[in-house]
Amino acid sequence: MKSADLEVLTRALEWLNDGYTAHLFTVVQTWGSAPRLPGAVLVVREDGHLIGSVSGGCIEDDLADKARNQALPKMPAIMEYGISRDEAQKFRIPCGGRLQIFVEPLNTSTQLIPLLQKLEDRKLIKRSVNITTGEVKLMEVLPEGLPKIEGDWFHTYFGPQWRLLIIGANQLGAMLANMAQVLDFDVLICEPRQEIRAEWHVEGVAWVEGMPDDVVLEIKPDGRTAIVAVTHDPKLDDMALLEALKSDAFYVGALGSQKNQEKRRERMRMFDLNEIEIATLRGPVGLRIGSRTPAEIAIAILAELIQVRAEQIKMGTGFISNVGCELKV
């Protein structure tokens, strides 16, 4: 899940703990042009305060007005916007767009705490809500697709935040960390060289102490983890790559020219890596866009990372988790 969506759920929990009630809205399905994709979430507090988004803004305004006037459903329900041409124009839904939204009243923190705890443990969760009774079930799952309604149940999926481990706190690492945060990545930094680390000025990242190979093992890379080595020091980059290429990380890349990458792959063959694992290395890292400056290289890396992530999601391999462990709330 994106950090913005995690922020929505966390803020909603704070409101519930403060004694407010709220409503959770999830985009189920869209037709035509729509500003947000299925799975997008919005929480509207009883007094009209809101966080998140399901459209370009006009639907949010309408839902906030309904909240202030106590006109939102008291039980889980399905709402639709843009059914008629007049309504589509009123809510500025372009090109005949239409939205189907699942709405769930939030009255107690117990409706969200188990889900947030699972996400902290980096689990992929299917959250099912009974439309008739309001019963909530959580289940750890493999990727299953988009939100859907089956009989009396609404199913949606929440996964841990995508994260990026950067090996190297140089200028390129700083550019990469800044831009990745804007793209909703949880950014981790490993830099054993104290003289370089001392000049780091990027906020919002998490430092992971240790040598690169130990750090990779410590964070336990999963299918929503990317690892990029940018120190340009083979001793440090290779340490990280030897462990990263054996992990479940969906993207592993390293800075360096084509010639240097060929030498790197030869070094990799001296260790316990097979050809399939070595072939997953993205090096030279990033899309070929003629980048030369640190900022341009960071853009190229993130563009390729986004491309690979989209492919993983489309193939349903964006996360690896244990199946089972059902929890009723």
Q: What can you see in these coordinates?
A:
α5 crosses α11 (294-315) and α7 (212-219) runs parallel beside α8. The strands form 3 sheets. This protein has a 6-stranded parallel beta sheet, with helices on both faces. Strands 3-2-1-5-4 form a 5-stranded antiparallel beta sheet, sandwiched between helices. The protein has helices at residues 3-17, 58-68, 85-90, 113-120, 171-182, 194-197, 212-219, 234-244, 258-268, 275-279, 294-315; strands spanning 22-31, 41-45, 50-52, 77-81, 98-106, 125-130, 136-140, 148-150, 153-158, 163-167, 186-190, 206-207, 225-229, 251-254, 281-282, 324-328. The chain has 2 domains: 3-158, no CATH class; 163-315, Rossmann fold. By secondary structure, the protein is an alpha/beta fold. It is elongated and about 65 Å long. The chain contains 11 helices and 16 strands. The model is unreliable at 317-329 (pLDDT under 50). It starts with a helix and ends with a strand.
Q: TL;DR of this structure?
A:
The chain is of the alpha/beta class and 329 residues long. The protein has helices spanning 3-17, 58-68, 85-90, 113-120, 171-182, 194-197, 212-219, 234-244, 258-268, 275-279, 294-315, and strands at 22-31, 41-45, 50-52, 77-81, 98-106, 125-130, 136-140, 148-150, 153-158, 163-167, 186-190, 206-207, 225-229, 251-254, 281-282, 324-328. It starts with a helix and ends with a strand.
